[in-house]
Design a protein that fits this description.
Its EC number is 5.4.2.9. With about 300 residues, this protein is an alpha/beta fold. Helices cover about 40% and strands about 15% of the residues. The strands form 2 sheets. It has an 8-stranded parallel beta barrel, surrounded by 8 helices.
Length: about 300
């Protein structure tokens, strides 16, 4: 295995300053991180690829068959993170859910910074964490602005002067509190020291997310703005970049795609009483034997 040195990792802050908008892909395993790094469209300076990877709490818990309720702590996820960081030098953005108790968050920030994580995202909810895309169909509570700002300050203080960024994720649109509430909160989070803002929405049209970007960038043109277009996949990367977003995270697609492919394989073998029919959909065995250096 070619281990990536921590100081050789691509710098996320520098990327954000050099590129108008970053493409970020979920990676839940070392092999998915290798794919995120290696898959490119086209060649040369105009080729397209992914600029960073996303460590999702949803996919990390789902692949362990655990509910997405903040059941995994950073210590539970660090072993897998270290495996991913060892084979992929793209910046890694870590989904920290609510960040937990402030006292715990202070320690977790130090752990993640030492591991080589490039950014942490914490969301402004409290109580038992539920997946945001469930919206108001389940009980979800938003943290007070003052308490969440305190958590941001603690996080930025305990990163020990390193380059790791801390992004504040606002759930006002998820909880249908409106654009004005979202904008007010995000301005407060920026003043508290957040390095960037993630705004989340479950509306399928994407209209409110575009309007948020327009209004936020009027007052904070230089603050990195991040979105996760799971609910509005019809909006192109170019559309979101033109709206003012600085990073677009495709937050769970690698695991969702892998599950669909595995189910297709398992079903086909049962249906045909053999593996012959599904072979064209599978990676050739010679390729998998050559995938990782040292296998042959």
């Amino acid at each position: 295995m070619n281990v990536i040195k921590r100081d050789a990792r691509i710098d996320l802050r520098q990327l954000l300053s050099e590129k108008a908008c970053l493409r970020v892909l979920e990676a839940h395993s070392p092999i998915s991180a290798m794919l995120a790094k290696s898959v490119r469209l086209g060649a040369g300076d105009t080729s397209l690829g992914y600029d960073a990877i996303w460590s999702s709490s949803l996919t990390d818990s789902t692949q362990r068959c655990l509910p997405d309720i903040e059941i995994l702590s950073p210590s539970d996820r660090l072993e897998r993170l270290n495996e991913i960081l060892a084979v992929c030098d793209l910046p890694l953005i870590y989904d920290a859910d609510t960040g937990g108790k402030i006292e715990h968050f202070a320690i977790h920030v130090q752990w993640l910074a030492r591991a080589g994580v490039s950014a942490i995202v914490i969301e402004d909810k409290c109580g038992l964490k539920k997946n945001s895309l469930l919206g108001l169909s389940v009980h979800q509570e938003q943290e007070t602005v003052a308490h969440f700002c305190d958590k941001i300050r603690v996080g930025t203080h305990h990163r020990q002067g390193g380059s790791m960024m801390i992004f504040a994720r606002c759930e006002s649109l998820i909880l249908e509190k409106g654009l004005d509430d979202a904008l007010a909160r995000c301005r407060a989070y920026t003043q508290a020291g957040a390095d960037g803002i993630m705004i989340h929405s479950r509306k399928s049209t994407g209209e409110e997310i575009l309007e948020f970007a327009r209004r936020f960038k009027q007052t904070h043109p230089h603050t990195p703005l991040v979105c996760v277009p799971t609910s509005y996949p019809q909006l192109t990367f170019s559309c979101l970049a033109d709206a003012g977003f600085n990073a677009v995270i495709y937050a769970n697609h690698m695991l969702r795609g892998a599950y669909s492919a595995m189910r297709q394989v398992a079903t086909s073998i049962l249906e045909h009483d053999r593996a012959y029919e599904i072979e064209p959909a599978c990676m050739p065995i010679d390729e998998i034997l050559s995938l990782v250096p040292g296998t042959r």
